[in-house]
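Suppose you are handed a protein chain with no further information: no name, no annotation, nothing but its sequence. What can you learn? This example shows the usual starting point.
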Amino acid sequence: MILKRIPAGVYAANCYIIMDEHNNEAVIVDPGGDEEDIISIIEEFKADPKYILLTHGHIDHIGGAVNLKNKYNIPIVINKKDEELILSSAYMFGSFGNGKKADMNVKDGDKLKIGNMDILCIETPGHTPGGMSYLVEDNVFTGDTLFAGSIGRTDLSGGDYETIIKSINTKLIPLGEEIKVFPGHGPQSTIKREKQSNPFIKS
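A reasonable first move is to predict its three-dimensional structure. Written in structure tokens, the prediction is:
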């Protein structure tokens, strides 16, 4: 697996390019903006994008999705609950343009495939109602659910503190201490490190 992080958009949200090095099939996770930077990385690695995966619907994570969809003719993927908040123009949620929906909705337990790699879709609500994390091999892409040393805020539309804590404790921690955590902002971590030092996680 080849993995590249690109801080994108005005909030420097982490966009990730995940590629199977054997056939160059790839996914784009959370393209929040700076599409030309993302495109240049895709071209540098000769990647063949198949999906745009969104961890949630906030503008800083989806701002570049439509332009990349149009360039590569690939589907935008999001949980239906966040799609509904996008369609209702909820505060801090982005848009796919003129009331348009995403191309595909995913829910807990769904699997996607690029090359020889499976992508497990995990519902991790709390930051938003339709928050998703994506597990690829021993790497989990958590959006704004779990950060290195912190968690996502829960005071925006649809956020809920008890729900995000439950998501972390019942969906992410059980993945195993060896799992690497790639959050929507800031540096990467591991489940082990977060269990040991994240003040929001009780081991």
